[in-house]
Amino acid sequence: MGRASNIEQYTETSRSQTCAASVIALRKRLGLSRELLGKALKCSAATVSRMESGAKLTAHLCVQLGNLAGDPGCWFFWEQAGLRSTDVLRIIPNLQSRGFDQTDDIVLRLVHAGPHARVKESDLVAIPVLPLVLGTHGEKGQNRASWTGLVPTSVIAAPRTWCPSPAQTICFRVKGRSMMPTIPDGCVVVVDASQTDASKLHGDIVVAHNKHHGLVVSRLKNIDHVDVLVPEDQVGWSNVNVRPGWTLRGKVLWWIVSEQKSIKKTIAPDVHRGSVRSS
């Protein structure tokens, strides 16, 4: 029993050392300081230092590191988050032959715009689905100003061209009906957290946070020189002034719509019953 425990401890130590060395190698290859790598990962330089000293990596950080590393280095970090290149290789031919047929034992699910789209393994980006729900007008979202350190509930894969900033791209589920018909209740939105400059997002659908309303998704407009959050359904809900007390957390890039209600089923929509839409 003691021997088995020693072996497990040795394996864990060896894995930590390998991860630490890989983080250091990636940072040097990218020519980044600890502070700049931390900014890219939305964490502190101290967190990067701990990673390089062998601290255990969260799945969320592993996915982001993989996105930064690119092909083929991404696979080492993604494997630490529970992803395997064999998953992707197994899924692609299945999708091409059967459409978006889903099985419960597949962790990595591929999202693309049609049954005949062909996506190379090197063109894929892993996007974490975080356990946070965004509200719409009339629905309170989860009150969390930051999602750093959250462990994804699952991960999806999408073409790299769909994600301008792969390391800052994340998914959330939406509740509420005020953004219908554009964004239905229960769909999954894909968010670029690097885009937070309000002056560049007028007319776009965004994610914003307020301590009273939590995380919400809405369309940002500038009306009479005032930034406001505007619902798609303007009959039942009113506009919200984003000043003061609101912080923009990112731009919604695209979203996944399906008749399936659970997030697990929504991630890889059936092309005959759901669709992938973009703003």
Give an overview of the whole structure.
The chain is an alpha+beta fold and 279 residues long. It has seven helices and eleven strands. A hairpin with a 2-residue loop joins β7 and β8. α2 packs across α3 and α4 packs antiparallel against α5. The radius of gyration is 20 Å and the shape is elongated.
* Text of the CATH class of the largest domain: Mainly Beta
Number of domains: 2
> Which percent bin holds the helix content?
25-40%
| N/C terminus separation | 57 Å
Order of helices and strands: HHHHHHEEEEEEEEEEHE
Key terms for this structure?
279 residues, alpha+beta, 434 Repressor (Amino-terminal Domain), Umud Fragment, subunit A, 2 domains
Short description:
With 279 residues, the protein is an alpha+beta fold. It is built from 7 helices and 11 strands. Strands 1, 2, 3, 4, 5, 6, 7, 8, 9, 10 and 11 form an 11-stranded mixed sheet that branches.
Break the fold down into its secondary structure elements and pairings.
Elements: H1 2-30, H2 34-41, H3 45-52, H4 59-69, H5 74-80, H6 85-98, E1 108-110, E2 124-135, E3 154-159, E4 169-175, E5 188-192, E6 205-210, E7 214-223, E8 226-230, E9 240-241, E10 247-257, H7 263-267, E11 275-278
Parallel strand pairs: 1-3, 2-4
Antiparallel strand pairs: 2-3, 4-5, 5-10, 6-7, 6-10, 7-8, 8-9, 10-11
Helix pairs in contact: 2-3, 4-5
